[in-house]
Amino acid sequence: MSEQRDRDIDGFFSSDRVAGRGDAVTLTDESYRSFLFDVDDPHLAEWRGQVWREFAARRTDHPFVQELLADWRALYDEPFRGVTSDGSVQDVWDLGDVGEAEEPALVEAAEGALAALSPAERERATYSLDAPEWRAWSNPEFVIHEVGIRLEDLGDETVRAILRLVEQSLSPEGYARVTEAMNLNGFLGELTDLPMVMNNRSYFFAVYGDPSTGAPWGWQLFGHHVALHFVMIGGRHVVAPCFLGAEPALTGGERAPIFDHRERLALALAASLTRSQRTEAIVYDSVLDPRMPEGRLHPADERHVAGAFRDNRVIPYEGIRATDLHDAQRGLLRDIVADFHLLLREDQRRLALAEFDAHIDDTWFSWYGAADGSQPVYFRVQSPVIVAELDNHAGVWLSNTEPARFHVHTTLRLPNGNDYGHALRRQWALTHSDD
């Protein structure tokens, strides 16, 4: 049976990705290029020449995708509460004395992005700060909700103005990480000869609130393997939810994988665990461990639990508590968290890490797979102020039906109600009720 026919769920997703198996999935030395479809393969040729809207209409017409969209729609329609560990929202967020800085350069970049739009584009791209469209983001290559304006429909100067806002909002290394993920999506479009389905402008952009005032405001950028939400509340920045991924997660072998540093830190931590620590930390021996309960593996999300439309998910703690790690191991754990917060400017990252430190006694690290780098892995860091995960995935546009290191999804959430800066925005509103 061909790899194409093995994708028996809907032509893209294989049941192999959700089927537990007794033998471990092992990594090979094969390049992702070994798993490229021939450009004339029906898996690719069926979509050739279609623009993104045509592709989305046909792709979402499949009964499996319709069922998936119905599930996601029900989640989207829920009132926002926030990710929790047990269904109860904890009061853990404190805006503190962060001042009222408007950051003129950032506001100027936002105004420049809006000024570059036509009146009709500006109307489509702007929303009130409390608009529900914040939560309409998704990460597949097929469009679910059209929110804002799509970059590939805009002129070069307009796109540059929008990206200047993104760059001004993030750290230099964070902006590089984001644009690398966008460019890898373009690279995937080249590999598959589907540049009108996947390119480095396959993203929707929107602004929430008024960047010209001292009140909170933000922006959103989302599409295939990139979904960012930036909010400024006084002098505090929030970049969450954040979804970054790539297929392939490296380009041709001449460059390191996009998440190489994060993965190396995590593998170093996993390898450092003692036998008794591994008993706690390694929740499942394989990413397709047959001991996983029904529903733990999702045909689209695989193992990650904090992706699109999961704003209210209850994610129980699992793995090993940070208090059961020694100092060097906790240092590695903190370095992993710092890399998840890479998109924040350095001063903002320090604030986020201080919050992480304050909850270290209630922080957990969980691991699925071997601890020696021989297998694909899933890991999660979770506390009252962070849910951060990395998951190796099976192919969608590549033919590997088992998880591999060259397809990666990562997510970052701020649980207990601070995704989209919601908890800090609420605090700001209470202190400015008379303004």
Description of the structure:
The protein contains 13 helices and 13 strands. It has 435 residues and is of the alpha+beta class. The chain has a domain at 99-248. Strands 1, 2, 3, 4, 5, 6, 7, 8, 9, 10, 11, 12 and 13 form a 13-stranded mixed beta sheet that branches. Helix 9 packs antiparallel against helix 11. The radius of gyration is 21 Å and the shape is globular.
Give a short synopsis of this structure.
By secondary structure, the chain is of the alpha+beta class. It contains 13 helices and 13 strands.
Q: Which structural class fits the helix and strand makeup? A: alpha+beta
Q: What is the number of beta strands?
A: 13
Shape: globular
* Mean pLDDT across all amino acids: 93
Our estimate of the beta-strand percent is: 15-25%
Overall radius of gyration: 21 Å
> Number of DSSP helices?
13
Which runs of at least 5 residues are low in confidence (pLDDT < 50)? Answer: 1-5
Q: Tell me the helix content.
A: 25-40%
User: What separation lies between the terminal Cα atoms?
Assistant: 67 Å
**Largest sheet entry:** 13 strands, mixed
Order of helices and strands: HHHHHHEEHHEEEEEHHEEHHEEEEH
Question: What are the main properties of this structure?
Answer:
435 residues, 13-stranded mixed beta sheet
